[in-house]
Specification:
- The protein has three helices and two strands.
- By secondary structure, the chain is of the alpha+beta class.
- It has one domain.
- The structure holds zinc ion.
Length: 68
């Protein structure tokens, strides 16, 4: 073993050490080594959750547009 890498994290699910900067999980890369572990542990991925949220701001301009 070389000097301890500060970027190495231990996956909460599989316990494997991984470089969190290389984790494909965009939001929980500090917790899980991959989206597979993230999904297996949570039952979903944060990415999928955010994709389902459709945020439409209610602005005066939009109301005028819909009323027309
Ligand atoms: Zn893992």
């Amino acid at each position: 073993m070389t000097a301890r890498n500060v970027h190495i994290r231990e996956c909460r699910r599989c316990g494997l050490p991984y470089d969190w900067r290389r984790s494909p999980s965009a939001y929980l890369k500090m917790t899980y080594c991959s989206t597979l572990c993230e999904r297996a542990d949570l039952g979903f991925t944060v990415e999928a959750l955010l994709r389902d949220v459709h945020f439409v701001p209610r602005t005066p301009g939009l109301s005028t547009l819909l009323a027309a």
